[in-house]
Specification:
The protein is an alpha/beta fold. It has helices at about 15-25, 40-50, 85-95, 110, 115-125, 160-170, 185-195, 225-235, 255-260, 305-315, 335-345, 375-385, 410-415; strands spanning about 5, 30-35, 60-65, 80, 100-105, 130, 140, 150, 175-180, 200, 205, 215-220, 240-250, 265-275, 280-285, 295, 320-325, 350-355, 355-360, 370, 395. It is built from 13 helices and 21 strands. It has a four-stranded mixed β-sheet with strand order 1-13-15-14. It has a four-stranded mixed β-sheet with strand order 4-5-7-6. The chain has a four-stranded mixed β-sheet with strand order 8-9-11-10, with helices on one face. The mean pLDDT is about 95.
Length: about 425
């Protein structure tokens, strides 16, 4: 790669899910541009359609005729969330406030992921949950009249927080959520931009009852989790900079970029702008020499999705990295701790599995071998970056799994390698 490589990364996945849900619940017509057209977002669109929402086919720009807060209807069949944990957890919050039953299903990977974290607060509000096995999918939500709640998650989960906020929104009751650390806050930012009464005090967010929600008019900013892979490429490769326009730089999402900057990465934000209560900027990444790092505790929530990539960056850069406090990685699309460590060791790096994280020992050397992704898009893309570096020879066993979050990943990666 030489000179300047510019790529417009796809729309933010978290914001795309929420734009569809809030557009469906709004009163009036919403306009959404730049939405992520991926498998996960299509799952949310399909679930909303099954509940009566008028969601058109996803395209670069479209409109949603809102149903109002109480306008969704009982689904006539099971709601298929595919591989999307965001779909099932956020839509379970919505479904809990309606006086009917909704059965959620998903693929084999999603069916293994825990749903107790949302079932507990929503049950405390008055809904009832049935699980076919354990606390995974299939899951039936028996909704109804919900009560106000003040809930302490004792963790940091944007999905749990959003499920409670959406349940309170649709039910018209006061809710507040306290977390151990601040998680991604797109839901509350978007609610504020639509006129809802939301207050935030450190790690507690509260929503007062609202009679209706105004429509959206927005361009979804680029996904910082998707941008992270191309930032990593710009830092690790010599010969030029990578420029990524209009990326969301919400402070609850930039943990990976912040950690890289602390390690010595040359990353710059220019052309800042505001979008639907959030912040966006052009991100510029330049070749850099990185130092060792330790990541733990409060740093983890803002970069949980990028931690497999951080492990690969450390392996490529020849730096030492220790990550702890990230047990959540074990219940993602794969056990990302085990998957990352086993694959790094298989291609010639030195990695050690910890109960709640991993340790990477710096060895600057060519990396070669076959990567078993376990169908996990984050694993495929992280090791795809390693495969794009000069001297490495890495085969990815399932390249198609990136469709759930970044359908054009391999094409964009190839463009930047030119």
């Amino acid at each position: 790669m030489t000179g300047r490589g510019t790529v417009r990364v796809p729309g933010d996945k978290s914001i795309s899910h929420r734009a569809l849900i809030l557009g469906a619940l709004a009163t009036g017509q919403s306009r959404i541009g730049g939405i992520l057209q991926s498998a996960d977002v299509r799952s949310t669109a399909a679930v909303l359609r099954a509940m009566g929402a008028r969601i058109p086919d996803l395209s670069p720009s479209f409109r949603i005729a809102g149903m109002g807060l109480r306008g969704l209807t009982e689904p006539g069949a099971a709601l298929d969330a595919g591989n999307s944990g965001t779909t099932v957890r956020l839509m379970a919050g919505v479904a809990a406030a309606y006086p009917f039953s909704s059965r959620f299903e998903g693929d084999a990977s999603l069916s293994r992921r825990p749903m107790k974290r949302i079932a507990e607060p929503l049950t405390a509000m008055g809904a009832r949950f049935e699980f076919a096995r354990g606390d995974g999918l299939p899951m039936t939500v028996h909704g109804g009249h919900l009560s106000a709640i003040a809930w302490n998650t004792r963790a940091a989960s944007g999905q749990t927080k959003s499920a409670i906020l959406l349940a309170g929104l649709v039910a018209g009751v006061q809710v507040s959520v306290r977390e151990s650390h601040k998680s991604r806050d797109h839901t509350e930012r978007m609610l504020v931009s639509l006129g809802a009464a939301v207050s935030t005090d450190d790690v507690t967010v509260s929503l007062a009852p609202v009679a209706s929600l105004g429509p959206l008019d927005m361009e979804v900013p680029g996904d910082p989790s998707s941008a992270a892979y191309l930032v990593a490429l710009g830092i690790l490769r010599g010969g030029g900079e990578v420029v990524l326009p209009r990326v969301c730089i919400n402070p609850t999402r930039t943990g990976f970029l912040d950690a890289l900057a602390a390690m010595g990465a040359d990353i710059e934000y220019v052309e800042r702008t505001a979008i639907a209560g959030d912040s966006a900027a052009t991100v510029v990444a330049r070749p850099s020499r990185l130092s060792d790092a330790v990541i733990s505790g409060e740093e983890v929530p803002a970069m949980i999705d990028e931690l497999p990539l951080m492990a690969c960056v450390a392996a490529a850069a020849g730096t030492n990295l220790e990550v702890t406090g990230a047990a959540e990685l074990r219940v993602k699309e794969s056990d990302r701790i085990s998957t990352v460590v086993s694959n790094l060791n298989a291609i010639g790096a030195t990695a050690e599995e910890l109960p709640d994280g991993f340790r990477i020992s710096g060895r600057r050397m060519p990396l070669t071998g076959r990567v078993a992704t376990a169908g996990d898009h984050r694993i495929a893309m992280a090791f795809g970056i390693l495969g794009a570096l000069r001297g490495n020879a890495i085969e990815i066993d399932d390249r198609e799994c990136v469709e759930v979050s970044y359908p054009g990943f391999w094409a964009d990666l190839e463009r930047l390698r030119q």
